[in-house]
Specification:
Elements (H helix, E strand, L loop, with lengths): L1 H15 L7 H11 L2 E7 L4 H10 L3 H10 E7 L16 E5 L5 E6 L4 H16 L1
Parallel strand pairs: 1-2
Antiparallel strand pairs: 1-3, 3-4
Helix pairs in contact: 4-5
Amino acid sequence: MKKLFLSFLLFVGMLYGDVKFTDMFDAYDEAKAQKKLVLVMLSQEGCSGCEYMKNVVFHNKDVSKYLEEKYITVHLDIYQEPVPEELEHFATPTFYFLDEDENILKRLNGGENAKDFLNTLKSVEEAYKK
């Protein structure tokens, strides 16, 4: 039953939106050129919170639209890709919100539902504009 429910959530998520991930090496150049912030998601294989964020929250139409408009998104698997030293983690998912000059604006440990994550995205972007 649990697998059926997760499959349903994945299918519903596919109907709404999708987040495009950028390579870490290009993220800051794109952020400067497009006047956007950078969101880095640190994850690992087998992390249920990571899968929920990627397959449900990031597919939410409001979240994906806001990310597309305001952020350059990067996904790094902590065991398969190099993670910059300053992006510490003790668990996954861990999210870093950065400006185009690589300054850390906020760190979020763990996942959130779509509504709360969208509010987090907006609050970081609003604080940065001031």
